[in-house]
């Protein structure tokens, strides 16, 4: 809704597709790493076990199936699952931190933890290697925007959703540092960890530190729990995003994907489509052992860019449309927005880079290929249907930025077009715009 009426449909279309693909690939990356982590548990007892591509993909599909079943048949327990996630994650960080520091036979020095940097394994120059290595940190903190996919199921979203986005970054940053610093103090030989066939060395690290396979698995089980909660939550957000975007006719087969199952009270076909797309993306692993980097790369690129487009539009219009917003960055807003756009431009480039050189076909980062494939589908569908039938966010008319008060919108009144169940929840279709499709989220 930050764009003019002329450009709102196109801006919303691009932002919506980036958000959708970002949500799909985030779910893929979380559950793919979960499948790899499960297989890595076998190596705690059988060190010569090396999972092949078929085993890895099948395990990933199993994890996706579990997350899908929880989303379909356990939707009424999602609030409880989210609360359990907070307690489980907090307890896991504390348990791992205490256990590794107490049981480690040797510890690294503070100089190593806070000052040592070795980029030789990547083949890149040290400076560029640092930037390429930012992918995992950026990927971990990128999911804050996925909260927007749940706008229709949140009380007072115009205030609570921005708070949740900010607090999620703060919480993730603090938790990450608290978790990683003890791990670095007890880090075994780096070359040994890099040589782990599964690509998931955390289990071996726990085994080395505790001195037993059982101890290593106990700590690894905590990490598996965190990934389970994350996988379920990511699929929930992806399915709601799919449902909302399909409701605007922006996805091929929209009539099917936008249906809400009356008995289960969930966007059943949106969940199924998200699961099928993720399972198909997993097939990339047959051609690239670096598939996980491709998934995380395209997820980070798509989500970051989807956040950047409305910020750029706001900057181009002088941020005047935000002066009456219920959540404001104040006088620092312009500088923060400008820095954000610059960072996203850099991130798009560096997150398409392979993590190591020289590059071979299996080690190539295929983030750009996945991105181009979805972009082709998006462009083709826009010319087939979107440019004629897609109207973008429900903005009544253009007004001067100086005259903006509260953005006018149209409330969704069809009781069967929303996955929320109670009248009270349906009232949150936003006092200033309402249907909150991913298009609205991207340009609001």
Give an overview of the whole structure.
The chain has about 450 residues and is mostly helical. About 60% of the residues lie in helices and about 0% in strands. It contains 17 helices and no strands. Helix 1 (about 10-40) runs antiparallel to helix 13 (about 290-315), helix 9 (about 200-210) runs antiparallel to helix 10 and helix 13 crosses helix 15. The N and C termini lie close together (about 5 Å).
Summarize the structure.
The chain is built from 17 helices and no strands.
How would you summarize the topology of this molecule?
Layout: H1 8-42, H2 53-73, H3 78-103, H4 110-115, H5 126-132, H6 134-142, H7 157-185, H8 190-194, H9 202-210, H10 213-247, H11 254-257, H12 268-281, H13 291-316, H14 333-350, H15 367-389, H16 423-426, H17 438-443
Helix pairs in contact: 1-2, 1-10, 1-12, 1-13, 1-15, 2-10, 2-12, 3-7, 3-10, 6-13, 9-10, 10-12, 13-14, 13-15
List keywords for this structure.
single chain, 444 residues, mainly alpha, 17 helices, 62% helix, globular, disordered C terminus
Number of strands: 0
What proportion strand?
A: under 5%
Q: Globular, elongated, flat, extended or rod-shaped: what is the shape?
A: globular
Unreliable stretches covering 5 or more consecutive residues: 405-444
The tally of helices reads 17
The termini sit apart by 5 Å
Order of helices and strands: HHHHHHHHHHHHHHHHH
